[in-house]
Each structure stands twice: as structure tokens, then as C-alpha cells.
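Minutes, project check-in

Agenda point 3 was the complex the collaborators sent over. CS summarized: two entities, 1531 residues total, and the question is how they sit relative to each other. Sequences were read into the notes so everyone works from the same version.
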Amino acid sequence: MPPVAQEGNCLIYRGSNFLKQRLVLSCLSGKPVKITQIRSEDEQAPGLREYEISLIRLLDKLTNGTKIELNPAGTSVMFSPGLLHGGQLQHDCCVQRGIGYYLDVLIALGPFCKMPLQCNLRGVTNSKDSPSVDHIKGAALSLLKRFILVDEGLELRVVRRGVAPLGGGEIFFGCPVRKSLRAIQFQQQGMVKRIRGTVYACKVSPAMANRTVEVAKGCMLKFLPDVYIYTDQNRGKMSGNSPGFGICLVAETTDGVCFATDCISNTQEEAQTPSIPEDLGKEVAMRLLDEIYRGGCCDSSYQWLAALFMALGQKHVSKFLTGALSTYTVHFLQHLRDFFSVTFKLENPEAEDDEDDERGAQKVLMTCVGIGYTNISKRVI
Amino acid sequence: MADDVGQDKRKQHRARQSGVKADKKKLKTKKDANQKEPELTARQRNPKAFAINSAQRAERNFRRKEDLTAKKQHIPVVDQTPDEPPPVLIAVVGPPKVGKTTLINNLIKSFTRTNVTEIRGPITIVTSKKRRITLLECNNDINSMIDVAKCADLVLLLCDASYGFEMEIFEFLNICQVHGMPKIMGVLTHLDMIKNTKQLRKRKKELKHRFWTEVYDGAKLFYLSGLLHGEYLRNEIKNLGRFISVMKFRPLQWRGAHSYLLVDRMEDVTNTDTVRRNPKCDREVVLYGYVRGVPLKQEHMVHIAGLGDARIDELSVIPDPCPLPGTEKKRSLLEKERLLYAPMSGVGGIVYDKDAVYIELQGSHSHKEKTAEATEQEALVSKLIDKKSTMDEQIEQQEFRLFSDAAPIKSKDFKSDDEASGSDDEAEADDSGLDAASSDEEDEFAAKDWRGESSDEEQDAEQDSEDASSGDEEYQSLTDMKGGDEESDESDDEESRILASNMSWKTNLAQKAQDAFLQRHSESRNLMRIVYGVYNQSERNKQEADEQGGDSDEELGGLFRVASKQQTELQKDKDIRDKEERCGFEYQGDATRDWLSDENKLLIKNCFVTGKWKASEDAENLLKLDDMSDNDSEVYGDFEDLETGAQHSGKPKNDDDAEKEVAPESADASLGKRRMTRVEEENLTKTELMAKKMKLKAKFDAEYDNSGEKGEEEGRITGDHGFYDDLKAEAQKQSELNKSEFAHLDNELRIQIEGYRAGLYVRLGFNNLPAEFVDNFDASYPVLVGALNMTEENVGYVNCKVKKHRWYKKILKTGDPLIVSMGWRRFQTVAIYAKVEDNFRQRYLKYTPNHVTCSMTFWGPITPQNTGFLALQTVRQDQEEMKRLGFRIAATGCVTELDKSSQIMKKLKLVGHPFKIYKNTAFVKDMFNSSLEVAKFEGAKIKTVSGIRGQIKKAHHTPEGSYRATFEDKILLSDIVFCRTWFTVDVPRFYAPVTTLLLPPAEKSQWQGMKTLGQLKRERAIKNEAQPDSMYTEITRKPKIFRPLVIPKALQRALPYKDKPKLGPENPRTALERVAVINSPYEQKVSKMMKMIETNYKDKRFRQRKETQQRMKKFKATKRAEEASKMKRQKELRKKVSRAISKVRNKNNN
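CS then shared the predicted structure for the full assembly.
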């Protein structure tokens, strides 16, 4: 989805998909972006959804000097970004999407703020449509850590859990600021050495959690003895507003790469049959194995983050090994080219001499030259 | 780079063969030869002399040494110079009449043996096999000086020795310091004006030391002793040339982060007709130059110094007009390789052939051929003039361009006319198709191609033929192999699956689809295409041509195909356009494999630590190696031989591996391959394992042993610099990676990924440049094109640390316009000064303080922090102004923060007066104008002059703007109430680039932007009325009259009688006569009695007192008499004693 047109600095896009990508890149590049024809075909509900408005609000809070113009129908939005400010933030996320949707933005923008980010987000901590908070904690933070080197001040804490549809959960995210990111060459994914996980049950019987653990662990033990799954049983205020349970598994390799997957039970509103814990446990295990099969040096949901930080790195060659690119990443790479004019070289890594065992699926080696992005918001004394 | 110049081999020291020293040495060698162990060091011979006597001193020595080494260390910077660097930019700077042009002429002559009559604009010459230089003369305009300081690699700072350093030189040095110091070499000229040798020597020394204090101690200062036939001495010029060609440069921060180019050729390619119709229309301009700094990207904005920001509309590489000679081995340059490229200096028309560049020199040899060409040219020109009579200056340029072009001009089509004549390069022929075609068409194609990820499927068939022809780029060629692969790979897997049969891939519900997706998104052959579409220029052109051809040739079929393709793309676009945004990997249904089944398990078994490890990491393997090395120590003894031997034997083995790997891969099974390689692993021979082991051992030794051994040898304890060494090694590694990573890619793809790297000669096309730029073009003003990084094209509030220059005679006033040179830009803005207080509040300052830094905020381009800048109040070349000011640089500083809002505060004291007071509550007016204002200040602290503190409570209705306040005590109506607050000062949003390049040549140095208020007032003779408050007037103070003290009754009652206000008259004498009191007879009797008693008593007391006084008198008299007699006696006694003593003394003395 290339930009439809470009007016001076401003990029013009069509459609609501990839709104988040575009806004994040716009904030970083300082280029205004205009998105038109948002769900204009949809007769019932044209225009921006509530969760997207909430995202724009969050960005407004995070930045200083941002100008947002919406047309009355909400089918077109003009976003001219200010400078990233950060600091202490409170945001009530829309319950239509999980907190993960919003947290992604903060992870991508956090290192480039003026002040260290300390943000409280309230809403749905675990949902199906976006990576859960546990997933992000497992996969995205380890990736972020690799780029910012020192992780002092980097924190993601689940204050309270709340599952869809009503949410009621809260998380705290703290992120330090950096002047620039270094170019990295990360081509060794290592071997999976341990599997950790979290099972949570809110307003449902604790037995659900235990049953899930049993199956998930059973599957994983066939591959690795080091499996440990924590149970997070919540009740009362700490369990949010709706019932549900779910599981998140994180696999860590010898080189510190983390793969994560999560699964959550069906909600009451959905017409589907209620989830059976055993099925859930099996599904999450299969998905984790799938993820391990795809491999690479980052979780497949956060290939885009790796690509972003590579592109923003210093003006040197960065290399990063990933599994097969997800559709989202493909579009993200296109957007990176639009905003930063960074083109990645994508190729299959050469087989090493002493590498004789196929480890999972074919990998992709992303190579690029960073644009030498520096944090222009931070104050120097 | 010392070996750049072939002859520059240092002469070896030749030891004396005869004489005393030689004899001594001979004796010594003889002695040494007799000794048994001749190679003993002093330490070994006499270890005691080197023993540590004092721990403290050893510690101090060690610390000193470490301090010295630490001082020398710099943070390692990744070296970014490309393999073929751009010419070194040498700027010749100095005040007028110091001999800049002569120096350039002489340098050119000494390098290329050519005379250049007129020096305008940069001149590039090849000086040695590996080095080119660009010479640039800087005129005496501060704008040019700034631009030159920003781009020069080496500055030759010329100075008239007979006159001494002039202000321009100091100004230029200051500019350099601010914008990242380039290498500076001083050159003293006019030395022959000083006749006296002693004087000359003194002068040289004086100037040298002055120069050193400005640059650094030991900076090179070159002497050109005088002129001979209007030229400098050849030897001196040659030496200078040598210095230049071996000079090394250190990377500068700003230039290490930005790309830039110095324009050495400019052309106007606007349609002549539009220019004829509107001479002031925006022009299409093409600029040429070598890319410097970091790689340049087309999408980035650029800033043309002295003009403003611009977007590059077209960027392409063209063959180097002044290439380095080939790589054949020879000592020096051939005559024909001593190239000179100076398109602006009238050195000649440049003619581009397909594969060569001819430069016409205005030497004697070119005159002969001129006749034939000239007639042709004249004919063409006259033809042109006939056709379009109103073209004015364009004609000249065209004439110039047409100089040796054989192709005749078609006057029908102005556009193509321009292309053929104007852009003068057939070398670009491959690009010209693109140029000619309208750009939106091209865009459309680009857009189309990367839109669909599945479009490749459809394109397959079409592109097969193309790809066969252009099969060289592996990324491009989307072979039909892919489809086949997919089928064969998956077929065996899929058969077992139930889902497989009825699923097409678009519905994407099956395992097959998932796998196909995985493969599509991980195979390198089409991955780039999936992501970026048709990214290659030539490929795109071809396709475009194909498409066009198809349109015309196959009438209906072709059209039909195009339409359907577009439709599917549109559909595809629509499909994803409004989907929900999800960052995860998509799962469709239960598409995951059943990983618990055995054949699937095999696929990922090795992803776990429980699986098979790599040979180099496997603990078992390593242990085995260890055992082996322990067993036969002889292998350990001389491992070097073994290692090399093993390496040699290992290589072919690996090659075999590779072949084996390739073969099965192309066939099909990945499983088979794995088995093969595992067999290999077990077959690892003993020697191979040994080799690996030794490699590891060597690595370990390198890390831990060497430093220790060396230290021991030296006999000193050395510090651990491992961290620094690691950093350095890392930077080195990164630099190598940067160079090698894309070296093997084809040039177009490389440029896509990397950008136009430094050293390439590029052509920059701009569409909308003002006509004045072309009309008023003056080659003696450098045109610097600097690329802007991300967000640098935006504007915002820039907060800087600034210090008024100590040589600048005035102080700077807040709100006065200031010309700032920062980054690539020069612009005028309005600055507000402030002082950062301890709590980081920025407090407004009206003037810059002297000798200390202060904070400055202005509205300007966003520039990264720590970028240096300098400020000027004017850039006009005004002699009087210069004389008055002496030094034009007003302030220097660096950027500290960027923001979209400013926080400069000014102290504000609001004053109010109470109008009603109830105990501790008071109503205050005059402080605010409306209740809304009051509402904003509710709860604010207030204070009276007498120091009673209080708080604003709430607005009061009348008068408007009054409010209720409470105080800690009752205040007086005469009190004044203050509210101390801070007031945000707005920074004016004024930002105007200095557009010197647009001015006509005569006014180029007279740019005048916004004037200061003072200037305007002086010009128009406006004098402000002085504020009456600010006038000095006589102070007359009225005596204060206090109101009488009123003590409340209740208080009076409580007071003791003594303090009670007496009700009687204040002055009894003036009091009224009292009323006569008539007593009753009894009372009279009593009072009479009482009076009598009183009188009696008084009389008695009077008498008693008198008696006492007399008694006291008598007593005192007797006392006094006694005392007197006593004193008398004592006196006599003392007299006697003294007399006796003096007698004795006299006696003794005598």
C-alpha cells in the first residue's frame, strides 16, 4: 500500500489498515500524514473506530505540538506530529482492542522521548486481537533491550488484569530515553533452552488454569525438560470486569532470543462455544512450536520493531535474522521506505560451514543501513 | 597515505663509517660478539636496578602513565571514507589582495601544467594516483566564508605577512571552530616586502605564535617568500603541493552525519518557451557535484545555502568527469591522466561521449579547430535567434552548451530540444527514456508493482521471457521454479491432510497455504519483489516499455490484460485497505501443524538445546577435542604447522560440503540433506577437530596471555586497556562491514539500499528554483547543497547555550533580529535570551550578560542537539559598520534542546489595593480586570508591603476584577497587596533564510533582512517619549501626621492604673478652673485636723532631713581630714625611701 500521493512533506494514504504504523512512523520522521477513505465503503460505521481515536489521543498525550484534523464523518484524518515528549502519562484505552495495541506504540516511541516514559494504561490487558501484555513483556521487551543496551528504567508491570470485553485491567510501562540506537548484527538465534509461561484466570474457577497448564506443559515437555508455567489467579478487584482465562508461553534461547505466544478463552459475547482449557493449552503449545519453527532472532509479531530500530540505527550496516516475514512486516517495510527511504536487503542467510542441521524453517536475513536517527527531543546540558 | 606520492620514501639513516663514534661502535660490537649471550637486555643483566624500591613511587609512576594514555584516547569513530573518496576540498581563504588567485593558479600549474586564466568556482584536478583535489577560492564575503568553512576539508589561510593578520582571518577561524574545525594551514605571503632579514625572522615568529594560539600549538604555517615573474617560487609551491597531497583528515561530527556537495556546474534546463513568456517563472535547474559526507538519498530534502530548502526531483549518477587513473602499476601519473575539471572557470566546454569525457582547454592547440566549429555554432545560433527573437540570456548559455555538439537542434519541440542540447550527456542515454516520460506515469507503475504481494504469481508468465534475458540479477528474476518448488515441496506433506483438497490459496485456510506463505515470505528470490515491487530502475523501464509496446501492438488482448491486472490489484488493495491492524503472524483456523507427530517433530527437534548442537558448540565434541590434545602432546608442541596444514586440507572438504548441499537442495528433500550433513559431522577427521581446537586455543592465548607476557618483558606493570581496545576493534569491524556488505551488489541496487555514496559524481535536478538564482548566478560564490536528515526540514523552538563573543563590542538585546548560521543554514530569526535558574526555570533576560553563557531561544529549523552555531547582527559588507564593530561575529554557542513550545518566564508583580477590610479578610481591587482572571488565580499567594501574607479566595462582583482575600492578620486600608507570578514570554515565530544567492551580483554582499528597532529609529529619527515613571524628579516628602491613639474601652478597663489613659487635662496649667467644693462642717473639721497633722508631719520630716544632712557633712569633713593626714605621712615616707635609694644608686654609680 504505497502512498497515494505526496504533497510537499505530507504523505497521503488510503484506508484504515496500518493506521498505527503510519502514525508511529510519522511521529518519528516528523512528516505529516493524511489518511483518507477510512472505511468509506462501510455503510454502517464509516470512519475511524473508537479504538483508533483512542490511539490518536494517546499520541497526542505523548507528543507536544501535534495537530490532528478529522473530517466530520471521520473518514479522513490529517496528522502532523510534534516532538515526542513522554514523561508521566495516564491513558484509558478503548476496550475494543487490547492494551497491547497501544503498548506497541509506546515501545516504538519510548526511547526517543524527551523525558523517560512512565505510563499507566488502563483497559483490556489480554485479548485476541493484539498481543497480550505478557506476550509483549516476553518478546518485545527483550528485543528492545538489545537495542538500547542498558535496561535501567525499562519496566512493564501488570498492575491488574482485565480481559475482554469489559477490561478493567491496568499496566505500568516505564521506558528510558536514548540519544541514538546502535547498529547491531544479530544473526544467531541459538537454541531454545527454557520455556516459561503464565496462566491467568479472572473471575473463573482456578481449576481452569491448572487444566490449561497441565496440557501445555505436557506438550512442551516432549521437547524440553525446563518448562515452568506460573499461575496467576485473580479475584475481586484485581480480576477486572469480565471473566476469562488464558495462557502465554515464552521460549528463551541460548542467545537470549524470546519467542512468545498467547491464547485466550472465548468471551461470552462471542457466539462460539466456551473454550475448553485443554484445547487452549494444546493450541498455545502448538503455536509456540510453530513460532519456534519459524525461528529468527525475534518473535514474529515484533519483526516490525526490529526493522524499525535497525532503520533508525546509526549510519552503519545492521543485520538481523528473522523467520519468514509476516504480512504486517512486509507492509511495515514498505512504510519504512516511504517515511525514511530505507530499503532493506532481504536474503536467505548463507549456510554456515559447520552448520549441518536444519533448524526450523527458512530464515530471512534483513540488512540495511540505518538513517542515523538521533533523539532530537532530549535535552543536553 | 604517505605512499600516495610515489617518490615520498623517507631517506634511511646512514651510520657513520669513520670518526670517533664509528670507532666506539666498532669496539662495542666486537665486545658484544665476544659475549656469550649478546641479546640480554639491561633488565636481564641487572635486575636489581629495575626492582621496585618504593611501592608508592611505583604506584605514582603507574598512575601517571595511565593518565597520559587515557588522555590520548578518543572514542573510536567508525571510519566512513569510501573506497573511492571524493576529491579533497581545499579552500583558499584570506582577505583581498593577499594572493589567493595566484596561489591557486600556481598550484594548478604545478599539478597539471596548465594555465587557467580565470578562476571562478571550484576546480577539480587529479594530483596523484589515489587523490584528487578540488580547489575553491573564497571571496571576501562573510556568507561565502561561512559556507566554505562548512564544506572545506582543508583550508589554506592566506595572510599578508607585511600587514599581519586581519580581522577576516580571525573571523574565519572562529567560523571554523563553530562548524567543526577543518584542517587549517596558514600560508604567509608578501614576505619579500620585509627587506630586513632580522625583521623578517621576527615577524615570522610573531605571526606563527599568534597563529598557534588561534589554531593549536604546532599548526603548520607555510611561507611563500615572494614572487618571481608574477608567480610564487616553484619549489615552494611544489612543497605546498606535497603537503597537501599527504594530508590526513579526521572525521567531523556534522559532516559525518550529513551528506553534502559543492556544486561545480549549474545548468538551467527550463523550457525556453516558458522562460520567454515569463522571464520570472520558476526554473528547472540541474546541479552537479561530488557527493561528500555520508550517502545521499533522493527522498531527503536538501538545503541550498543562500537559497533555501528544496526537494530533489531527480537524482542520478553520471560518469566521473575527473576520474582517478586506472589501477595499473606505475610510479606517477601520465600526462593525459592529469585531468582538470572546471566547468565554471571558462576552462572550456565539456563534451561527453559515450565512454569518455573530453575537456576543452583554452590552450593554443584548440584555436585551429575552432574555425570549423565556430561557423557551425554560429549558424545554429543564428537559426535559433531567427526563430525566437525574444530569448535574452538563455541564448548565451545555449551557445555555450552547444559548443561542440554535433547533433542539430529540432526547433519544433522545445522540450526535446533542451534534452538534446542541454543535458549534453549521452552517457545518460539509458536514463533519458525515464526523463522524457512523464514522471507520474512512472510513479503509477511503481505503485502498481509493489501493491500486490500476489501479483508476482500473475506476472510470472509474462516475466519469464524478460527474466531469461536479464537473468543476471537474482533478486529480480522471479523464475517459474518457485511455483514448481511449492508444488513439489508441499505435495507429500499435504496428501495426508484432509483440508488440502478443497482449498485454493486465496482462502488461506489450509496448512498448505500457511506453508506456501512461509516460503513465499522467506525465499530470497522473490522476497525483495514482494516487499518493494519492481525496485530496479532498468527493470522498471523495460516493463514500462513492454507495457506500452503491448498496448500498441496487441490491440485488444493487450488492453484486456492490462485492465484485468489493474482490477485485481485494485481489488487486492481494497481487501487489505480497511482490515483490522494486527501485528501478529496470521493464523487461519487451526492451521498449525500437529507438532507432536513424529515427522513434524523432526523438523524442529534441533531448535532445542536437547537437539543436535553445532560442532563448534557441542560440549561432547569439545571434550573429545580436549582429550585428544591431552593425549598427544606433540601435536600441541608445534601447532602452527598443523593448523596451516589442516586449513589447507579443510578447505576442499568444505567445498565438497557446499556442493553436496547445493545438489540435494535443488533436487528436493531437506531431510535428505540433513542426514547427509550429519554423517559428515561424524566423519570429522581427527586433524580437523584438532585444527578447531587449536584455533580456539590460539584465540584464548590472544585474549589472555599476550598482554601479560609483553608486560613482563618490558618490566613494567601495564594497565588493562581491554575495554578501549574492544571498542576500537568493534568500530573497525563495523567499518569493514559497511564497506564490504554491499560491494558485490550491482550498482543500482546498492544505491537503492545505501544511497548515493560519497565520491559519486551526481546530477541533481530541481524543478522549482527561483529565476533569480539562475539570472544572478555568480560562480565566485560557492553553492553548497547540504542534505537534511529526518525532521531537520521542520521548524520549532530551538533552545541554545550562547555566549556573546568577547571581541564583539556591543551586547545583544532580546527581541532584536539575529542572523544565525547553524547546520547548513544561514537564517535570520528573533532571539529571546534567558537565564536557566537552579530549578531549571528559564528567566527572561533583556540583554546578554558579558563573559558568561546564557540560554537563547528562537524559532528556527530543528537541528540536532550539540550542533554549533554562530550569530551575526549583519552580513552586509559595510566598511563603516565594519570599522565601528571591528569583529562581526556577535555570539557563538550550541543547541541544547528542541521543542514545540517555549518556557521563558518573566517575573510579574500584580498590585492591588484593599477597599474593605473585615478582620483578616479583605476585599482587594485593581489587581485584575475581570472575574475570569481572578478565577485563574484562586488560591494564589499574596502579600502586603508590610509583610502580611495571604491568599486569593474568590472573585467579588463589584468592582469587576476585585476579589476576596484572607490574610494572616488584619491589613490596613493603606496597605498595598502584591501577587508575585511568572509570565510566559512568547518567542516570535520569525524565521527567514538568508538568500544571498538570489541577489544580483553587485548586491550579493548587501543582504539586509529585518532591521532592529534601534536601527529603524535611528534611520527615521524617531525618539520615544520617556515614561513619566522613569523620569528623575525631586522627591518631596510631607511630614506624616499620625492620628491620635485610641485605646478601646475594654482594654482601658483591663489596664493597670498606671497605663490607663488619664482623663485629666493633658496640660494642667491650661486646664479649666475646678468647681468650688463646699464641705460640711464635720468634713471641714476633719480636713482641718488632717491638714494640721500633715503640716506637723511635714515640718518634722523637714527638720529631721536637715539634721541628717548636717551630720553627714560633719562626718565627711572628719573623714577627709583623716585621709589627708594619712596621705601626708605616706608621702613623706615615700620621699625618704626614694632619697635613700637614689643615694645608694649614686654611690654605686660613683
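Noted in discussion: Chain A touches chain B through 105 residues (CB under 8 Å).
Follow-up: revisit at the next meeting once the mutant set is ready.
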